[in-house]
Amino acid sequence: MQKKSNVLVLLNGAVILTLAGLFTKILSASYRIPYHHIAGDVGFYIYQQVYPLYGIILQISTYGFPVIISKLVSEYMANNQRNQAIQVIQVSFLFLSILSFVLFGLQYGFAENIATLMGDKQLTLLIQIISFSFLFVPFVASIRGYYQGLNEMLPTAVSQVSEQTLRVATILLLSFVLVKNNYNPYIVGAGAIFGSVVGITFSLMVLIFFLFRSRIVNTWGFSKQTFTEASPIFKKIAIQGIIICISGMGLLLIQLIDSFTLYPSLLTSGIDAEKAKGMKGVYDRGVPLIQLGTVVGTAFSLSLVPVISSAIAQNDWAFVKSKVNVSIKLSLVVGVGASCGLAGLMEPINHMLYGNTEGSQVLQILSMLVIFTTISATIAAVLQGIGRMKAPVYAICIGVVIKILLNMWLVPIMYTEGAAISSAISFLIITIMNSVFLYRALGQKNKLIRHAIKIIAVGLLMLMVLRGYLWTMNGILDAHSSRGLNVGIALLGVVFGGVFYLVLIIKSNTFTKSELRDVPLGKSIIKYIL
């Protein structure tokens, strides 16, 4: 009975953290659209050039080190070793302090060099502002890890939501005021980046409030024992924390490579600086579309991960394999549907969100990333759940190398389309490698190939139907120059394509009735469609 109660606590905590993560990811992706309207293509280029540097900080403080800290704290607390759990927090704080101060010093001190490598020295101030966020990481990551280790997810969830809400509000407000007062686009970008520092500052304030409220601040004092017995804990936190951080940075590292290679390559290809900035800004329109598509896809498939983790804890590997298959099928269905839907309706969606259809072909290529990022994120989460944490890191490292090489080859020839193609190929390789790692780990043959072919075929059919729908609507309404009509065409197309795709997927018996009962909205699908 006690074991069942503990499992329920873990699942409830996972639900709270998942909902908070879902909210913050949607917010983090969607605010870029109004920001683009405020700052324009060039302003968006400026912001997106340096955003991956903040993304690394976010990964360290939110998804990387808190996970390993919480794991160690949880293990000690389960054995009633509270002093050792506190020692984990102390050692974590020391390690993260050293790491963060080093990274802060390097980024602030070499900001101009980093900006030069990005091809634009005017980015120096923005890079320096971002570096201050590193100073908050030891506090934020350690406190979040401590509470998560106690299965108290509310402090982490509230701090995440608070951080992103205030950050986004600051970005939009400051950028609007600065643009309204005709400030230089780089000053506008600096104001937007400052929102990141404001957000993480407020997040720390929220966490400190929880600490004082629970009256455990006095237990955080350092002792001689902290230093004499720190070595084993230090190694675990350093190695496993970095592994978890990298395994969640796939898309972020792809963006970072584009920041260092795309704009400079456009310049060396003979393109005027202002035009190249605009081209990169248009290319970056794909970022929120990819993120939103991935968030939706993983929200459904990752809903099964707590169930899988619970089965692993009970050593029920037959159940684990069954649920892993359902989870991956689900991510494939949502990823293919989102990618093909975006590709089929990209022109009206681009016009609806950004005011024109510029770069639609590039964005169609980038939309293919949603398939790979969704599946890859799901498999990486499962691999971590079964203890194969290094596998996603190997895949990402190979994908990053391929991305760099392909950018060097394709961008001078095909410009932003080349960068989009290299991103898609890189993430395809990452997804294939993760899939191989997973099915080797589970000791079973890949039974999903037949279903994958069927799902992709249905997705391509939907894509062709949507292109036909778009051609017909444009012919009837002549909507090329009307944003209002494009909004209507896009929204109607999303509903039409979504229903068409869902019905075909269900009717093709991709999922059994028992599998559908495990997925979100599955019972409603059984009731109304089957």
Descriptive notes:
With 530 residues, the protein is mostly helical. It contains 24 helices and no strands. Helix 7 runs antiparallel to helix 8 (185-214) and helix 15 packs antiparallel against helix 17.
Alpha carbon gyration radius: 23 Å
Low-pLDDT stretches: 1-11
What proportion of the residues form beta strands (DSSP E)? Answer: under 5%
Element order: H for helix, E for strand: HHHHHHHHHHHHHHHHHHHHHHHH
Task: Let me know the number of strands.
Answer: 0
Major sheet summary line? none
Distance between the termini: 37 Å
- Count of helix runs: 24
Helix content class: over 70%
Shape: globular
Mean pLDDT: 84
Structural class by secondary-structure content: mainly alpha
Secondary structure elements and pairings:
Layout: H1 2-30, H2 32-78, H3 82-109, H4 111-117, H5 124-131, H6 137-149, H7 154-180, H8 185-214, H9 224-228, H10 230-247, H11 250-268, H12 273-283, H13 286-301, H14 305-313, H15 317-344, H16 346-354, H17 360-367, H18 369-385, H19 390-414, H20 416-441, H21 449-477, H22 483-507, H23 513-518, H24 522-528
Helix pairs in contact: 1-7, 1-13, 2-3, 2-5, 2-6, 2-7, 2-8, 2-10, 2-11, 2-12, 3-5, 3-6, 3-10, 4-5, 5-8, 6-8, 7-8, 10-19, 11-12, 11-19, 11-20, 13-15, 13-18, 14-15, 14-18, 15-17, 15-18, 15-21, 16-22, 17-20, 18-20, 19-20, 21-22
